[in-house]
Amino acid sequence: MGFSMLDALIMTLGFEPGPLISAVASAAAEGLNEGAKIVVFTAGFKDERAERAWLQLQTVIGMMELPRRLGVKVERHEVPLHDFVDAVRSVKQVIDELRGSKVKISITGGMRALGLAVFTAYMLVEWRYEPMLEVYLEGRGMALAMPEMRRLFKLAVRGEKAALLKAMEPGKPYRPATLAAALGKDRSTVYRHLRALADIGVVERTNGGFSLSRLGLLLI
Q: How far are the Cα atoms of 139, 197, 200, 214 from residue 207, in angstroms, in the given order?
C-alpha cells in the first residue's frame, strides 16, 4: 500500500547515517506533506558513533532544505533499552500520536533491539491508515518492502475482553468480583474472560486473583 503524500517518516538510528539518508531522500521523492514529521528513534544510552551519525543526518536534511521548503519537523526520541517492554511502550507513546496520519516506517539502523521495539510498537497501534513498512539491508543501500504484518499477527482481544484489560492497572492484582463490579458485568462472565486471557498469556494468576502480564502491558 502506498500514499500520494506522507505525513510522517519514522526511522531508527544506529551508528551509520547512510540508510537514514537514503530513506529521507526516498520519502522526499515520494512526496512529503507540508509540516510533515521525521521521527528518529535512537538508543537511550550515549554513544559517540550514534551522536556523530545524528549530526550528519541533521546536516543532510538541512542541505535538502526540507525544513525551509516544507516546514518539515525533525524529532529525536531516545528509547530506553534496559527492558524490552519499556522500550516498546516508549516507542508506542510517540507513534500513537501519528495513528491518524499517513506514515512510512523505515527500520534503518543496525541497532537490532531498537528496530524490534519499533516494529512491535507498530503492530500494537490502531492505525487509521496502514503504514508503509520497509527494512533496509545493511551494507547494500536498498530497502525490503514488507507486507501488512499486523493483519497476520494481531492478537484477537476485542469487545468485553478488551474492556476488561483496559480496566486493569499495571502491577495491581484483581479479583473477578472486583472487576465485575467495576464493569457492571456478571462475575462468572468476567472470570471466564480472565481465564481465556490467561490462556493466551495476556493476564496471569497472582495471589488468588489476576494481573496484567508483560504481554498484557503492551496491549493496554
A: 51, 17, 19, 17
pLDDT string in tens for the chain (220-residue length): 567 799 999 999 989 999 999 999 999 999 999 999 999 999 999 899 999 999 999 999 999 999 999 999 999 999 999 999 999 999 999 999 999 999 999 999 778 999 999 999 999 998 999 999 999 987 777 889 988 877 766 666 788 898 999 999 998 999 999 999 999 999 999 999 999 999 988 899 998 799 999 888 887 7
Do 22 and 109 meet the contact criterion of CB atoms below 8 Å apart? Answer: no
Spatial distance between the Cα atoms of 103 and 98, rounded to a whole number of angstroms = 8
Helical axes 84-95 vs 112-124, angle rounded to 10°: 60
- What crossing angle do the helices spanning 187-199 and 159-166 adopt, rounded to 10°? 90
Task: Report the distance separating Cα 72 and Cα 155, nearest Å.
Answer: 35
At how many degrees (to 10) do helices 176-183 and 187-199 cross?
A: 120
- The angle that helices 18-30 and 48-63 make with each other, rounded to 10 degrees, is 30
Order across the sheet with 132-137: list the strands: 73-79, 32-43, 6-13, 103-107, 132-137, 142-146
pTM, whole model, 2 decimals?
0.81
| Cα torsion 54, 55, 60, 63: sign | positive
